[in-house]
Design a protein that fits this description.
Order of helices and strands: EEHEEHH
Distance between the termini: 74 Å
Helix content: 40-55%
Strand order of the largest sheet: 1-2
Number of domains: 2
Strand content: 25-35%
Structural class: alpha+beta
Length: 115
Amino acid sequence: MSTGYPQASSGTGYVQRSSSSGLADVLDVLLDKGLVIDVFLRVSLVGIELVTVDARVVIASVDTYLRFAEAVNRLDLGSAEAEGLPELMRTAPERVAKAATKGVLQGAEEALLGE
């Protein structure tokens, strides 16, 4: 969208100046191209997941977002393997004992074999 406004110049001709983009033009480009901020953060300690942050901030048309999500394989919002707190509390002692036993066995192996 270009409307020319005659503007005096130092020569004999006129300089054509295009109009600035309006808010509607900016929104049209933003919705067409899209702006996506996608964050996935997981904090674990000794194999126990403490915090998981899965955030998506999207300023785009639905079509643009679906193309982005499909391209980066982010259409699935939840994990089928995710454990809830009751399951975590039930399996935590077993996991800790298994990790401790594994560490002791590795230490004994290193001591015996001199590695």
